[in-house]
């Protein structure tokens, strides 16, 4: 399907900006929670936890979302060489997430959103959206819609992770419930 975009206006760009902002931070999106809403009550401890050893933490997902926003920004700025070529650039590991780290990750995500919107606002007409992203086989239209789809997908993933982690015992809570390490508890007569 090919979109019929009026090349003399920036109506489509303005619609995309509205959709990007809604998907990112609206309190009333039709599909559920925006990304910011999904992250609202995530603590640093919750952000670092995993459902299992082969899943990503919320902190890693936030880093991943930021990375791909930066990719979109750099491409919109005309950077032909920029790419995400290593796993660490795409899915960085965060074994421990303290208050500072969690705040920094969220701030970087917020700044990357602002940069993305700023770059789109600089565009003068919708025709740019039909040009291809350097080094890719898709248009800028596909790229910026992809950012929205990416937010929705990972926002839902974050919601599921939060729900599951809140029902699972935290390792520290589990250890605390056994007191001094005795499997029957610290006050037990079974030594």
Automatic annotation (TrEMBL):
It holds the Pfam family DinB_2. Residues 172-191 are annotated as: Disordered. Residues 35-158 form the DinB-like domain. InterPro entries: DinB-like, DinB/YfiT-like. Gene3D superfamilies: dinb family like domain. This is DinB family protein. It comes from Dyadobacter jejuensis.
